[in-house]
Specification:
InterPro entries: ABC1_TM_dom, ABC1_TM_sf, ABC_transporter-like_ATP-bd, ABC_transporter_sub-D, P-loop_NTPase, SbmA_BacA. GO terms for molecular function: ABC-type transporter activity; ATP binding; ATP hydrolysis activity; peptide transmembrane transporter activity. Its main location: membrane. This is Vitamin B12 transport ATP-binding protein BacA. This protein is of the alpha/beta class. It has two domains: 198 residues, ABC transporter type 1, transmembrane domain (ABC transporter transmembrane region fold, Up-down Bundle); 211 residues, Rossmann fold. Strands 8-11-12-6-13-14 form a six-stranded mixed beta sheet, with helices on both faces. It has a four-stranded mixed beta sheet with strand order 3-7-4-5, covered by helices on one side. α12 packs across α14. It is elongated, with a radius of gyration of 36 Å.
């Protein structure tokens, strides 16, 4: 861009002077036009730029679709890698291969359309820029053959015209790059517009209190408007344990997400020590890195607490991994789901939260390991409030209280007579 601006100002004066006064016959009279070639270069550049934009109007969309289809193809490969074991057990190789071929063919089809369109633009750009050197010669040829100026001046005019025209028609030269940039900008603008359209509909006030957990007048509903809970109230003291039980689809996990501030379709109040709260999900997240970093996540590893870490691993049955704490592997692919869930329990024991939400975090454990992990939580974290979500009947005897979610947004809160 800077080179084009410098060339324009450098050669514009030369072209204006070299053009001189040109007489053009018009309506039976001769009209004298100063700097005729400058005006011709300007008009020719504007017309050529407009035609280039018209011919390449589909390029931004094609670039956008190419990026999208390539991203879809890469994401499908990543999904297969993450779920390779399940695909193999389903014997779904042929289905996955067909889906990959379908996505690859879509990307290739768009790619060849994009290449053809880019070739058209490049051919047009080459012809357009080359023709600019011929135009001044045709216009000034009569004066040259009449002996008005020597050949050197004609060459000077041709070079100056080409430089001025090239500077003005800069957009034609860089149109393919501009279309690629525009596709990227369109994606970013679309992403930002989607973010701007996200409406935070939650009216749940999640407050901070040092001890206990309070929920007042909590209403929860689905995006389609169906109610899950009406006027829900709950009060838990340090050391209490609550099991949320209900059939699938009644909003057990949604209640946890609402209390932790992740569900927007709700209103009411919830207060607890948010800074010392932790949630264990059904599929624990194990970040890339060493096993030690995964067990301490989201906190940084504390090597002074190594003895406690190894003791917790032994208590949950992961002592066979204690010598691999510093191995950097893809632990989410190496460990079974049950082992990953026990890693999450170790994470909770290390974090020592004030409130611990367990969203079906023991679903892959047998009854004995499940009971051992819960008893370990109660013994090691006697002041921690435990709120669990689960289907297993064995979970009820591990909690002091049970919350049963029922149809039509109703609920029943009761105490367990003899918890373990």
């Amino acid at each position: 861009m800077l080179t084009s601006v410098v060339s324009l100002f450098s050669f514009l004066h030369i072209l204006w002077q070299a053009s001189g006064l040109v007489s053009v016959p018009f309506a039976g009279e001769s009209v004298v036009i100063p700097g005729l070639l400058v005006w011709i270069a300007l008009v020719y550049a504007l017309l050529g730029t407009g035609l280039a934009f018209w011919l390449g109007r589909a390029l931004p969309r094609l670039n956008f679709m190419q990026q999208r289809r390539e991203a879809d193809f890469r994401f499908s490969l990543m999904r297969l890698r993450e779920n390779a074991d399940s695909v193999a057990q389903y014997r779904g190789e042929a289905t996955e291969n067909a889906r990959f071929n379908q996505r690859l063919e879509a990307a290739l089809e768009n790619f060849w359309t994009l290449v053809k369109k880019q070739k058209l633009i490049m051919d047009y750009s080459t012809f357009y820029l080359r023709s600019a050197t011929v135009i001044p010669m045709f216009i000034m040829a009569p004066q040259f053959f009449a002996g008005a100026f020597p050949l050197g001046r004609l060459t000077q005019i041709s070079v100056a015209f080409g430089e001025v025209h090239s500077a003005i028609a800069y957009l034609v030269e860089v149109f393919p790059e501009l279309s690629a940039w525009k596709s990227v900008i369109d994606r970013l603008i679309g992403f930002q517009e989607r973010l701007d359209k996200v409406e935070v509909k939650s009216n749940v006030v999640v407050g901070q209190q040092p001890k206990g957990l309070q929920i007042k007048d909590l209403d929860i509903w689905l995006p389609n408007g169906r109610r899950l809970l009406n006027s829900f109230n709950l009060s838990l003291e340090p050391g209490d344990s609550l099991l949320i039980s209900a059939p699938s689809g009644y909003g057990k996990s949604t209640l946890i997400r609402t209390v932790t501030g992740l569900w927007p379709h709700a209103r009411g109040c919830a207060s607890y020590d948010r800074e010392r709260a932790l949630t264990l999900s059904q599929k624990p997240y194990l970040p890339l890195g060493s096993l030690r970093e995964a067990l301490w996540y989201p906190n940084q590893p504390d090597r002074d607490a190594d003895a406690a870490l190894r003791l917790h691993m032994q208590h949950v049955g992961l002592q066979h991994l204690s010598e691999q704490l510093d191995d950097e592997l893809d632990w989410s692919q190496i460990l079974s789901v049950g082992e990953q869930q026990r890693c999450a329990f170790v994470r909770a024991l290390l974090a020592r939260p004030a409130v611990l939400f367990l969203d079906e975090s023991s679903s892959a454990l047998d009854a004995a390991n499940e009971a051992r992990c819960y008893q370990l939580l109660k013994q090691t974290l006697p002041e921690t409030i435990l709120i669990s979500v689960g289907h297993n009947a064995s979970l009820e005897r591990l909690h002091w209280q049970v919350l049963e979610l029922q149809s039509e947004a109703q609920w029943v809160h009761r105490k367990v007579m003899q918890p373990v």
